[in-house]
Every structure is written in C-alpha cells, then in structure tokens.
Amino acid sequence: MNEISFHKTHMVRERFAYNTYRLNECLMWSGWNNGEYGMMSVNGEDKKATHVAWFLSTGVWPTGFMLHRNICPSTLCVGINHLYEGSALDNQLDREAKRVARGLLYCKRGHLLIGNSVEISLRAETGRIKRRCKVCRRKR
Ligand SMILES: [Zn+2]
Ligand SMILES: [Zn+2]
To answer: How many domains does the chain have?
Structure first.
C-alpha cells in the first residue's frame, strides 16, 4: 500500500484507538491478533498493529521489522515509545533474546538446550538460528 488518503488515515486512526488500551507503560492491542502480534486490516491488507502504530505516528510504513524495546514486556504492545525499526538480524537476535527471557530454552520433550545437549547452527540463507536437541537425537 503506497497511497492512503487523509480520510482513510483518519479512519484507521480511529479504529486503531478503538482497539487499544493503556496498561502501565504499554499501549496494549485488544483487537484481532495472530497469537503473537496484534493485526489490523488496512485497505484490505493484513498489517501488524505495530506497523500501523508506526505509520500513524510517522506517516510512513516501516521498511524493516518493528521490534519491541527491552523495557516492553508484551508483543501485543503497540506503544510507539516501545517500538523501533530494525533489520532482519535485529529481529532474529531479538527473538533469541526473548526466547531466553521466557525460559523457552527447552526442546519439545523438555530437555534443557544448553551446553552439550544442543547443536546450534546458523543457516546462512535465511539468517535463522537453529537449535537441535542432541538428547532427543541420541534416543532415536
Ligand atoms: Zn510496551
Ligand atoms: Zn530433547
């Protein structure tokens, strides 16, 4: 979406405001979400609510990823002060950091993925970090 009229922007702003509420320092999204991020349909396109927040505040759509600052505890927060625009690598590092913070350093069967029990590889094509549980692999 490149062009969006003033009138439409106004409607988006109203719908956006209607779907948010204040919680401590955060502006929480109460509308539709995909299980992790708030979502909003704009001009028939599904947009992340964080991207809409950025657009409404800056007048431009983010070209990279919208990430949450470390002070922000929720992916459903759309507070502009809690967001920043980052690269794909920033996004990956951020996800890793959050995974650690959430204590999700376990494989599906509950083995702790640290030290000798985890094989970490970086896939060059995608820039994604892969963790494989060695305990599970030994049992197979
Ligand atoms: Zn927040
Ligand atoms: Zn395992």
So the answer is: 2
Please identify every residue whose CB atom is under 5 Å from ligand 1, which is an ion.
Answer: 26, 72, 77, 79, 82
Q: From ligand 2's centre to the CA of 119, what distance in Å?
A: 11
This prediction has a pTM of: 0.68
Tens of pLDDT, residue by residue over 23-42, are: 999 999 999 999 889 999 99
Domain carrying residue 23: 6-102
Q: HEC profile for the chain?
A: CCCCCHHHHHHHHHHHHHCEEEECCEEEECCCECCCCEEEEECCEEEEHHHHHHHHHHCCCCCCEEEECCCCCCCCECCHHHEEEECHHHHHHHHHHHHHHHCCCECCCCCECCHHHEEEEEECCCCEEEEEEHHHHHHC
Q: Cα(126) to centroid of ligand 1, in Å?
A: 28
Nearest ligand to the C-alpha of residue 53? 1
Residues 72 and 40 in one domain: yes
- Give tens-digit pLDDT for 87-114: 988 888 887 777 776 656 778 788 888 7
Instruction: Looking at the structure, tell me whether residues 39 and 63 fall in a common domain.
Output: yes
